[in-house]
Amino acid sequence: MTRFLPRLAVALVAVSACSRPASRAAESASAAVVPDTTHAIRSGGDFHVPLGIQLWSFRDAAKADPLAMMRTVRRMGITHVETAGMYGMSAEQFAAALRDAGLHATSMHVGYDDLKKDPARVIADAKALGAKWVGLAWYPHDDKAGFTEADARRAIADFNQFGRTLKDAGLSFFYHDHGYEPVPYGDGTLFDLIIRETDPALVHFEMDVLWTWLPNGDPVALIRKYPGRFRLMHIKDMKPGIARGSLSGGLPDSLQAAIGAGQVPWGEVMAAAERDGFEEYYLEDETPDPMKNVPASISYLETLKYPR
User: Fold this and answer.
1) Which of 44, 139, 154, 169 is such that its CA lies 20 to 30 A from the CA of 250?
2) Is 111 in contact with 134 (CB distance < 8 Å)?
3) Within 13 A of 67's CA, how many CA atoms are on the CB side?
4) Taking Cα atoms as reference points, which of 224, 161, 151 lies closest to residue 189?
């Protein structure tokens, strides 16, 4: 996701995502790709964990009709979701809409200011939604200067504070990496610094596999390096041939790919995540045509085999 901007209850245009904004008009045009029947997700391979979706994938469809978008998600076989804004509804209204569509929220993304300035509202919204996990997908920093040690140290202090506040309320805090954090530092990176200096009892991490992969990161090695710290995953990929090494924290949607049509070695990644005990797996599609590509990604995961 990119920057998650103001309050949860504002319209979709006021929230941010797991990548920098880009036009995706093709989504609404392809809505008819999804048949008016409910797909039952069945694993014929090794990936057996329940699969959810980050609703940001369908933000364009939600602008026109969020309730229809939710019904479409359910027809794809999804039963649980991660939220990124509530499209102008209250948390109670949004939870009711999800229930009516046959969905429930297990995780929610919020903005930095939400957690910093109004944690009581965030807690109330999470409880109204029934979500266990509350997370942040972007930490404020100067884009031109890049992410610095000072930013990382501020993030460490904030994350420990957010984690304590949410844990005291019976919730769990996570930070979603976004690809700008692996700046070289000491014997590792600033992301290593954040992981090492946050309290494991208070601060968890959501691995966005694309944003881990793009800066030349190794998702499997990162999971093994920090066992138990990553509890959630965004399943996302980029097209073959796209160069790695960027610390921008962004990639145009036209360069992103359906799962199985990109670069990431998904069998290795999922095997490592399952061994480590990841709790939540969310598809997040930021391609120009999620209505077509999300079902394709689901089909790929249904038959995914792990290395032997």
Assistant:
1) 154
2) no
3) 6
4) 151
Domain residue extents for the chain: 12-302
Number of alpha carbons in the 13 Å side-chain half-sphere of residue 256 = 29
Residue recorded with tokens 């990604």: 297
Residues 213/266, Cβ–Cβ less than 8 Å: no
Report d(CA 232, CA 175) in Å as an integer. 10
d(CA 173, CA 204): 6
pLDDT at 254 over 60: yes
- What residue type is 74 in one-letter code? R
The CA distance from 79 to 138, in Å, is: 26
Q: Strand 237-238 relative to strand 256-257: parallel, antiparallel, unpaired?
A: antiparallel
Second CATH level (architecture) for the domain 12-302: Alpha-Beta Barrel (3.20)
Question: Residue 36: pLDDT band by 50, 70, 90 thresholds?
Answer: low
Instruction: Tell me the chain's radius of gyration from C-alpha atoms.
Output: 18
Angle of helix 66-75 relative to helix 91-101, nearest 10 degrees, comes to: 40
Which ranges in 90-148 belong to alpha helices (H)? 91-101, 112-117, 119-129
